[in-house]
Design a protein that fits this description.
alpha+beta, Creatine Amidinohydrolase, 19 helices, about 35% helix
């Protein structure tokens, strides 16, 4: 949501700051760090973990706050700068750029000898704590891990933790029995010279045990921990109230089942045994590492052993995601056809459009004999200037009509049992300006550059990211977010470890699913983004070449608005790509469309020169 701060919001922000500062004084702390995460280092959170939103009003999925006795700041990245300015009271919190001025750097300029900066060790990773501790020590200050989060003491109406029902993800969709996955991970744990590994992130636990849950909106995961020994039966720590008898029996065959309250005792037991325990310092709570070390164990820092295997989709998962994208593409075509006729009435707004799209998704899945479990995230439905807010969430206060002469940006996706989708389309409402068409076409050129890229085995997303920006850079333009993120298989719509961005250092491998979503945003005017999902294709020798090359297959099937394309900017090869892409759509989706929708698609996907 990007709602405007009201007088009531300002009073609440100052009141909560006052209460928090009083708590800090009682604990002899001069400051406190509030990250946007939970005990599992999740990106999207259950309501009970939305501490940052409760304190500051900022509702985005990435950010942090630092509260000192005499000042406070909220830190957000480029996706959220416009949104944060609308949601956060500037008289209570300064706004800082999370990348350019991260919390540790902001604190470094303000720390004094003797300061005591508090943090919740369940909400920060070992890597984050290490950096902050170094900053505090250099200033002769102390970083203090608290045993109870002070926000929880003053958040009197905090929601209860979630208890979403757990289901088993069948082998015909996962492509591999859970026991086989566990065996593979145990082999990698042994290779790392560790006795056990901790799985702390919810999607890693879900993938490993072939379970799905409903603890976080739009993310089919259950909040749980697992301890995987290099040899022997794993332990799974999950609230038993989430399990039916059938699910419990299935999981009990795979692991010893325990309540979450027993987790810290299990960590201490590993420590007392002198175990070497593998955990990801960038994705595991610092409290977990501390519990092992304090009891005498050794922490072996390394990647989450499930992270890469989960990202490399097998043939069954890829077949499922292709089916899901046909279903989802048909829903998008039906929506775009409806919108093309309805927008001219002047009676369509962001809420109506988002609701109709959700309806088309559910109905199209039923036509296919399938099921839409959920959307994969809250739909971004941005008309005119709201489209320039990268992760905009429409509310009754911000809802805008789709006006003639404007652009409408819709970023949405579905969670189907056989795959997760994520697609963005930017649509001209009425006649676009020449500037809009120029910017859109430059974004399209970047999109095509990624879609058609050939790259050597071992190349990373950082090496490709420039391709998406080159046409914008030539015009002195850019966008302040990554070009692509990993996507799960009926799991998180944002999945690591690979991404296409300046920070994407993990090599791309066959089977990885990534988004391709360059954009351009003119604050107060409009936003443009074109997003398809891609899968990395196996290495092949290029004719005349001497090295095997990887490439991409585009999974998403929905027309790109031809009215926004300036042909004079596209090369013949780019025009050929667009025509070939559009030519795939009708044959793939036609069986899920009616005659009128097929006729609309034939026109929308006609060769660009026509």
């Amino acid at each position: 949501m990007a709602r405007r701060t009201t007088r009531v919001d300002q009073i609440a922000a100052h009141d909560r700051l006052t209460q928090l500062r009083a708590e800090l004084s009682r604990d002899q702390l001069t400051g406190f760090i509030v990250p946007h995460t939970d005990e599992h280092q999740s990106e999207y959170l259950p309501p009970s973990a939305e501490r940052l939103a409760w304190l500051t009003g900022f509702t985005g999925s990435a950010g942090a706050a630092v509260v000192l006795q005499d000042e406070a700041a909220v830190f957000v990245d480029g996706r959220y700068t416009i949104q944060a300015a609308a949601e956060v009271d500037p008289s209570a919190f300064a706004l800082e750029h999370l990348i350019e001025m991260p919390p540790w750097k902001w604190l470094k300029a303000r720390l004094k000898p003797g300061d005591r900066i508090g943090y919740d060790p369940w909400l920060m990773t070992s890597a984050e704590v290490k950096r902050l501790d170094e900053v505090c020590r250099a200033a002769e200050a102390t970083l203090v891990g608290v045993t109870g989060n002070p926000i929880d003491h003053i958040w009197t109406d905090r929601p209860a933790p979630p208890l979403g029902a757990v289901t088993i993800h069948p082998t015909e969709l996962s492509g591999e029995e859970a026991q086989g996955k566990i065996g593979r991970l145990q082999a990698s744990i042994a290779d790392a010279k560790a006795d056990a590994a901790i799985l702390a992130q919810a999607d890693s636990v879900a993938w490993t045990f072939n379970l799905r849950g409903a603890d976080i909106a739009h993310n089919p995961v259950a909040l749980a921990y697992a301890v995987l020994p290099a040899d022997g039966k794993p332990s799974l720590f999950i609230d038993g109230r989430k399990l039916t008898n059938s699910v419990r029996a299935t999981l009990a065959d795979l692991a010893e089942l325990h309540e979450p309250a027993e987790f810290t005792g299990s960590l201490a037991a590993l420590g007392r045994e002198g175990a070497k325990v593998l955990l990801d310092p960038k994705g595991t709570a610092a409290a977990i590492a501390a519990a092992i070390r304090d009891a005498g164990g050794t922490v072996v820092e390394g990647a989450d052993p499930a992270e890469l295997p989960k990202a490399r989709k097998n043939d069954t998962e890829l077949a499922g995601t292709r089916r899901a994208h046909i279903r989802d593409g048909a829903a998008m075509v039906r929506f775009l056809a409806w919108l093309d006729g309805a927008a001219a009435s002047g009676e369509i707004d962001e809420v109506i459009a988002a609701d109709r799209l959700a309806g088309f998704r559910a109905d199209t899945a039923r036509r296919d004999g399938s099921e839409l479990v959920d959307v994969s995230f809250a739909t971004i439905s941005g008309a005119g200037p709201n489209g320039a807010i990268v992760h905009y969430r429409v509310t009754p206060k911000t809802n805008r009509p789709l006006e003639s002469g404007s652009l409408y940006l819709v970023d949405s996706g579905g969670q189907y049992r056989d795959g997760t989708t994520d697609i963005t389309r930017t649509i001209a409402v009425g006649v676009p300006t020449d500037e809009m068409r120029d910017r859109f076409t430059r974004v399209l050129k970047g999109h095509i550059a990624i879609a058609t890229a050939r790259f050597p085995v071992g190349a990373s997303g950082a090496q490709l990211d420039t391709l998406a920006r080159a046409a914008l850079w030539q015009a002195g333009l850019d966008y302040d977010h990554g070009t692509g993120h990993g996507v799960g298989s009926f799991l998180a719509v944002h999945e690591g470890p690979a991404r296409i961005s300046k920070l994407g250092t993990v090599p791309l491998e066959p089977g990885m699913i990534l988004s391709n979503e360059p954009g351009y945003y003119k604050a107060g005017a409009y936003g443009i983004r074109i997003e398809n999902l891609l899968v990395v294709t196996p290495a092949a020798i290029v004719t005349g070449g001497d090295r095997p090359m990887l490439g991409f297959e585009t999974l998403t099937l929905a027309p790109i608005d031809r009215r926004l394309v300036d042909l004079s900017i596209l090369s013949p090869a780019e025009i050929a790509w667009l025509d070939a892409y559009h030519a795939r759509i009708g044959p793939a989706l036609g069986h899920l469309l009616d005659d009128e929708e097929r006729q609309w698609l034939a026109q929308a996907a006609a060769p660009i020169g026509d």
